[in-house]
Amino acid sequence: MTTFAWITALMVGGYFVLLTLGLGKHKHLVHGPWLFFFRAFFPNWKFYHAAGRAPRLYVRGQIGAAEWANWQRVYARMPFQLSHLLHNPVGNLALNHQNLVDHLWSDVQDLPEDGDIRVRATYQLVRRLAHEAVGGGCWGTVPMLATPLPRVPSHFQFELRMDTLLEQDGLPSDSELVLQSPVEPTWA
After folding, report:
1. pLDDT tens-digit series, residues 122-180
2. Are 101 and 57 in contact (CB under 8 A)?
3. Alpha-carbon distance 14 to 18, whole Å?
4. In whole angstroms, what is the distance from residue 6 CA to residue 82 CA?
5. Tens-digit pLDDT profile for residues 10-23
6. Mind giving me the DSSP string for the chain?
7. Residue 53 contacts residue 165 (beta carbons within 8 Å)
8. How would you classify the pairing of strands 155-164 and 138-139?
9. Cβ atoms within 10 Å, residue 19
10. Are 159 and 134 in contact (CB under 8 A)?
11. How many CA atoms lie within 13 A of 141 on its CB side?
12. Residue 77 in contact with residue 142, Cβ under 8 Å?
């Protein structure tokens, strides 16, 4: 192992020790900010509890003064390549984005009655992901949207929906709205 690898391993190990000590000291914060820092290392496994439905991110942009584009799902359509079995950073980024959407769904489910989802970090990150998608973002060379918008919109909006995994004509056969964002202005 190189010196850099040892330093990295020590720093990651120290990070976990610090978080574990923080959780032990602040037992009332198990659902608070300390546990949130651990989520960066582990995927959201709640999708196993509800087979058949999965959270999906949809976006739309306002192109003209009052003209909105159709809702589109932000979903990677990666062509299969044998080399991706060994090294696939673009696919991993797309999976990371879907994991973020899964975490937002989990946060919506765990939100108290008087809570505001817009102050959560997952909401802010998904908001940035939606902004990137309507602005023509890509995973490597694969566009985030099946039909990119003709130009950068002046405003955008996103929805979190629970879709069935069975599709008809490329669209989910059943979709339930979980969260709809307010209309947001695009930024540079």
Report:
1. 999 999 999 999 999 998 888 999 888 888 889 999 999 998 765 655 555 678 899 99
2. yes
3. 6
4. 32
5. 888 888 787 777 66
6. --HHHHHHHHHHHHHHHHHHHHHHH-GGGTTSHHHHHHGGGS--GGGGGSTTEEEEEEEEEE-SSSPBPPPEE----PPP-GGGGT--HHHHHHHHHHHHHHHHHHHHHH--TT--GGGSHHHHHHHHHHHHHHTT-EETTEESSSS--SS--SEEEEEEEEEES-EETTEES-EEEEEEPPPEE---
7. yes
8. unpaired
9. 15
10. no
11. 1
12. yes
For tokens 């979190």, the residue is: 160
Torsion region of 186: left, alpha or beta (phi above 0 gives left; psi -120 to 50 gives alpha) = beta
Query: For residues 176 and 123, is the Cβ–Cβ distance under 8 A?
Result: no
Backbone angles phi, psi at 158, to 5 degrees: -135, 155
Q: Is the dihedral of CA 114, 120, 123, 127 positive or negative?
A: positive
